[in-house]
Amino acid sequence: MNADDSEIFRIERPAVRTAFDRASARYEAAAVLQARVADELLGRLEPFKFAPAVVLDLGAGTGRMTGALKQRYRRALVVALDLAPGMLREARRHQHLFRRFERVCGDAVRLPFATASVDVIVSSLMLQWCDPPDRAFAEVRRVLKPDGFFAFSTFGPDTLKELRSAWAEADDAAREYNHVNHFIDMHDVGDALVRAGLTEPVLDVDRMQLTYPDALALMRDLKAIGAHNVTAGRPRTLLGRSRLRRMQNAYEAFRRDGRLPASYEVIYGAAWGAAGRPAAALIDGEARIAPGAIRPRHER
Q1: Among candidates 134, 179, 199, 156, which has minimal Cα distance to 37?
Q2: Which of 3, 57, 197, 280 has the smallest C-beta neighbourhood within 10 Å, fewest atoms?
Q3: What is the pTM (predicted TM-score) of this model?
C-alpha cells in the first residue's frame, strides 16, 4: 500500500465514535455475527481456568460480553471500556444485582488505566477500528500485567469482499472511491503484536457468511451496527441513484439460492504480557528478537 492509499484508508477516530454512538440503541438487534464471534472468543478462554483480579473488555459495545465475563469471573473487577458513550449507556441493561461491572468511556489507543494493572484483556471485533493496531497493542502491553493474557478477534481483508467488488465495478473509471473499510491480514496483526512486545502470539482465521435478500438490506444492517465506512477516503457527497443501482446490479453476480452473501474473515488471536521484556526493536520495519530472549513460560 502506497502513501496515498494509506491516507485513503485511514480510520477517522471521531467518525468511529459518532457512528457507534448513533447505532447504540439498535446495535444488539442487528449484531448477529458479532454475538457469534464474541461467544467463540469467550469459549476460547475456558481452558485456561483463570482467576483474575481485574478483567478489561476492550471495545465492550453494549456490554453483552462484559456481562458474560462478570458471570464467569465473579470475584474480579470487570471493566467495560468503549469509545462511544451511547454504547455504555446501553450496557446498563446487562448489569444485574450480583453481576455488576464498571463502565469507562475511553479510547483503546489511550487507555485510562495504570501500567501493569490488568490480568486479562478481551476484545471482540474492535481492533479493526484501530488501523493500524500498533497503538492499541502498545496500550494493551502497557496496562497488562507481565503474565497477563490478551485474547481478541478482528476482521481480515476478505471481509465484505462482495460489497467491495460491487462498488469497484459501480464507480466511475476516472476516479476511485473507498466505500468499505480496510482490514489488515493475519500476518500483519501478528507482526504488530510482536512489535508491541506481547509474547507467544497465536492466531487463526475463521470464515463466516451472512446472507441477505438484496444489497440494500446488507447496507442497512451495517448502518444499524455502526459499521459503515469511516475512512478518510470515503465519499463525502450523496451517492447518485445510478451509481447505487450499478452497485446493486454488480452485487447480483454473487447471488446463490436466491440470497446474496456477505463474507467475513474473522481473525482470532491471543498473546501473553511482556513478562518484563521491552518491546521488540524495529529494524527496516521488522521486529527482531534475540534468540536468548525466547524461553519456555515456566522458566520466566
Answers
A1: 156
A2: 3
A3: 0.84
